[in-house]
Design brief:
Length: about 300
């Protein structure tokens, strides 16, 4: 497995020059686009890493998985899906169009409108410190902290997310303080993780919510089933269909360059590569995930 990961990393590196770092959040634009790392954590407790798997970067949209997990655990399925849909949007992650014109509520929890709506009803019951603690436990990573520089940078360039949040308020989806909801959403996007933390989270999801190392149950089994399904259909922005065909695994990416993925009942996978394609997915990360899935025959319908 170790040799295989190193070969996959080398092939991934060839794709790096074809992408670029996200720059709509200026602090993300300052990341080294050449960083690339992968970590695989298998159910029998073995961990394999190659490249920059220990470099910290911000979780960005992958926090939407943690957000959804907290919401389903705290408020239950019916409440969450009375506020947010479960359909792929086919639009960019930060689009306002479909929300305004075709739907009275966000398409799914993996796009900004859905995650901001969820943050709004989480915020009175789980504050940032509690969400940080929850994230650390799910990622088996006590070193996760708030990246203040990225958080400040996003806060001062949040016009689009602020527009989404106020549109949600106008539609009656957000009933709590809009600015506080937005602040919680942005802080969660600014948590610093590694490819290893994502592989840890992936393994917990792959194992139905149980930490296989300690045997502790962290999430209910039916909550995890919903999360994995929504990751599969909506996790890679408007590239989710392509990823489902070529990779065939539940996955969620973030504009910080991370990808969280898993092979059910087998392994968690974490990737970091901040050079992104036009849809906001790590360009080399997707290639590495495709190769890993192909070589280990992990595709759900292999
Ligand atoms: N914090 C980013 C935003 O709201 C997250 C986007 C992403 O990773 O897709 O724009």
């Amino acid at each position: 497995m170790q040799t295989r990961l190193e070969e996959i990393l080398e092939k991934g590196q060839e794709k790096v020059p074809y992408g670029k770092t996200a720059d709509y959040i200026p602090e993300l634009g300052r990341r080294d686009p050449n960083h690339l790392g992968i970590c695989v954590f298998t159910k029998d407790g073995k961990k394999y890493q190659a490249g920059d798997s220990q470099i910290r970067f911000t979780i960005q949209s992958i926090s939407k998985v943690i957000n959804l997990a907290a919401a389903l655990e705290q408020r239950g399925f019916d409440y969450v899906f009375s506020k947010v849909g479960m359909e792929p949007s086919g639009e960019a992650f930060n689009s306002l169009v479909e929300l305004d014109l075709t739907s009275s509520y966000p398409f799914n929890p993996m796009i900004n409108s859905g995650a901001i709506a969820i943050a709004s009803f989480l915020q009175p019951i789980m504050d940032f410190e509690e969400m940080l603690d929850f994230s650390r436990r799910l990622c088996m990573d006590p070193e996760i902290t708030l990246d203040e520089a990225v958080c400040r940078s996003e806060m001062s360039h949040a016009s689009r997310n602020r527009a989404i949040a106020y549109l949600l308020e106008s539609k009656g989806i957000i009933e709590n303080d809009v600015e506080k909801s937005l602040q919680l959403y942005i802080k969660l996007c600014s948590l610093s993780v590694t490819a290893e933390s994502l592989a840890n989270l992936g393994l917990i999801l792959a194992c139905g919510g149980i930490n296989p190392v300690t045997g502790e149950r962290l999430l209910k089994e039916d909550v995890v089933r919903v999360i994995k399904t929504i990751m599969f259909t909506c996790g890679m922005y408007d590239g989710s269909g392509t990823s489902a065909v070529y990779v065939g695994l539940p996955a969620k990416s973030g504009v910080g360059g991370g990808i969280l993925s898993l092979a059910d009942k087998k392994m968690g996978i974490g990737i970091y590569g901040p050079s992104l394609d036009q849809k906001g997915n790590s360009i080399a990360g997707q290639e590495m995930l495709r190769l890993l899935s192909k070589e280990l025959k992990l595709h759900l319908f292999a």
